[in-house]
Design goal:
single chain, about 220 residues, five-stranded parallel beta sheet, globular, binds cytidine-5'-diphosphate
Length: about 220
């Protein structure tokens, strides 16, 4: 299907939500459906984290994290971007306002491209694209998210336990929601999608229905 973007209002879909909520899968499916480019903004934070990790920097030190913001040396295909250690570094360095400032322009210009776009992350609907056509806030119970993340990690051959994964999910939620800079929060005009009792296909269908309802409302 082609995107309903017009020349004066690019069709932008913002998908936010906590760790392992399924927002990435949903965002990719929406991008495919509407023929829009997609940006996983978490990868930008992961890229800074991987840079920092590789030069032995301390994620507790804001200046060192800022020095890791040169992303020209990172390949976005690098498998290590998806590792747990990089995810945990990313969750820490993303709290620094200076790191967020470095990554802001890249995300805003992606969101502002003429044909429209889908972006997923934590602050898309609140900071990056506050005027997005449709905003989804995708969530699920922490236990459900931990089960999904565990399955992903086991599939990648990692030896981890449910309790550790659940503790990590709680820690990330707390850091993402508790930070001062662009905390994870549902935008006032975002549509809530709780995927706790849904499989992937059901979650995608529900997301699509919400976006379609939003489009019908704005074009009425
Ligand atoms: O899904 P998961 O939490 O593993 O990670 P992600 O979406 O790849 O994001 C990695 C980290 O970057 C998260 O823990 C967030 O703290 C941070 N992030 C952010 O602060 N703002 C965004 N727009 C995207 C990610």
């Amino acid at each position: 299907m082609t995107s309903p973007a017009t020349t004066d209002t690019p069709f932008v879909i913002a998908v936010d939500g906590p760790a392992a909520s399924g927002k990435g899968t949903i965002a990719r499916a929406l991008a495919d459906h509407y023929g829009l480019p997609h940006m996983d903004t978490g990868l930008l934070y992961r890229a800074v984290a991987l840079n920092l990790f590789r030069f032995g920097g301390d994620p507790g030190n804001e200046l060192e994290a800022v020095r890791a913001c040169d992303l020209s040396v990172i390949s976005f295909d690098d498998d290590e971007l998806r590792s747990e250690i990089v995810g945990s570094y990313a969750s820490r360095i993303s709290a620094y306002p200076a790191v967020r400032a470095h990554l802001l322009e890249r995300q805003r210009s992606f969101a502002a491209q003429a044909g429209g776009a889908v972006l997923d992350g934590r602050d898309i609907g609140t900071v990056i694209a506050p005027d997005a056509t449709a905003k989804l806030f995708v969530t699920a119970a922490p236990e459900v998210r931990a089960t999904r993340r565990l399955a992903e990690l086991i599939k990648r051959g990692m030896n981890v336990h449910y309790d550790e994964v659940l503790a990590d999910i709680h820690a990330r939620d707390e850091r993402d929601s508790g930070r001062d800079a662009a905390p994870l929060v549902q935008a006032d005009d975002a549509l809530l999608l709780d995927t706790s009792d849904m499989d992937v296909d059901q979650a995608i269908a529900a997301a699509l229905a919400l976006v379609e309802a939003r489009l019908a409302a704005v074009t009425r």
